Amino acid sequence: MAQIRPMEEHEAGRVRDLWLQMCAEAGTPLPESSAQLILANLKQYAAHQLVRCFVAEEQGVISGFVTCSIQGHPVMPGLSGEIEELYVQPVEPDAHRLANQADLVKQAVAFMLAGGVGSIHTRICTGKECPEEEELRVFWQLLGWENDMTIYSIYSNVPGDPVLQRVWDEYQANA
């Protein structure tokens, strides 16, 4: 079984490489500018009080990670947590990968609970761009999480999808 522990700053490059692998496997490879930004952000996770990146390490090799954060609302009381990204390299048997993912989630939840959160959330991809949607739903349900929200999004930069880009551009023009 993997050892789950906080990422150290010097390991941010390895975690960034796993992040890029995760995106490539999902069919959305990232440009170098994004890779540099991810690396700069991950380096900050090692020392920041409200965010953490935990890694799964086996035999000296980091094979997975989870990032999480604690957030407060500027007006409403209380704190909430978010599991941001979760990835473990595919391995055989798949149950081993799922166990490592579950252990990463448990460590992230423990960190956020220690930070005083009253709720914790995560997001999964859905629809035509997410062939693993059912697998993700099953994973989170097995951990006892409830699917109680749907999130709608718009983005500032949507190459290859002029319809989505137009939505953002129309909001921008009327701002």
Task: Give the topology.
Elements: E1 3-6, H1 12-25, H2 32-45, E2 51-58, E3 61-72, E4 79-88, H3 94-114, E5 119-122, H4 133-142, H5 162-173
Helix pairs in contact: 1-2
Structure description:
The radius of gyration is 17 Å and the shape is globular. It has 5 helices and 5 strands, in the order βααβββαβαα. Helix content is 41%, strand content 22%. It has one domain: 3-Layer(aba) Sandwich (Aminopeptidase). It is of the alpha+beta class and 175 residues long. The relative contact order is 0.12. α1 crosses α2. It has a 5-stranded mixed beta sheet with strand order 1-2-3-4-5, sandwiched between helices. It has helices at 12-25, 32-45, 94-114, 133-142, 162-173; strands spanning 3-6, 51-58, 61-72, 79-88, 119-122.
What features would you highlight for this structure?
5 helices, 175 residues, Aminopeptidase, alpha+beta
Shape: globular
Which segments are poorly predicted (pLDDT under 50) over 5 or more consecutive residues? none
Main-sheet strand order equals 1-2-3-4-5
- For this structure, what is the CATH class? Alpha Beta
Series of H and E elements: EHHEEEHEHH
